[in-house]
Amino acid sequence: MGLNYSFKAARKKIDSLNTGEREALATICRDIHQAQQVLSHKAAPILEGCMAGCRGLCCRNIHPADIITEWDLVYILTMAPEIEDAVAACLAREGFFPSDCIFLENGTGPCLFPDSLRPERCIISFCRVESSVEKEIGRVMADFSRLIRFFIFRPLRRLTGWLRPNH
Question: Residue 33: enclosing H or E segment and its boundaries?
């Protein structure tokens, strides 16, 4: 369906949250951000090698919707609502055929997203398997999984709250 659909769905998910849920989402997103910062710091020499070797090949000739998910957009819009208009403008250029990532400034880079505020696949992917940052990659993945579970179990939490309003 494309990233435009995912963008609208992410925006709708965020907009439907009550105050307590927004606070819980913000906590989860801060944890993802912190995990990404730790990974980015530890993987800095690896990323330098990636950029020197393939120069961002992973951002070329792709379907962005295959890499960036609705959950990534929930995370990014929660953490950086100020870039929502820029993301929407990029999405206006989304095509049907593979192309360079639409979030690369001027089609070549740098990426629109800050270094420690990236879609999950972008932050955990390297040119080769990197066992030296396996623990940090696992932490980022676990935190994104927590984000997904937050929304999956949200109706159940709301039902429980409705059934037991005094607790």
Answer: helix 19-42
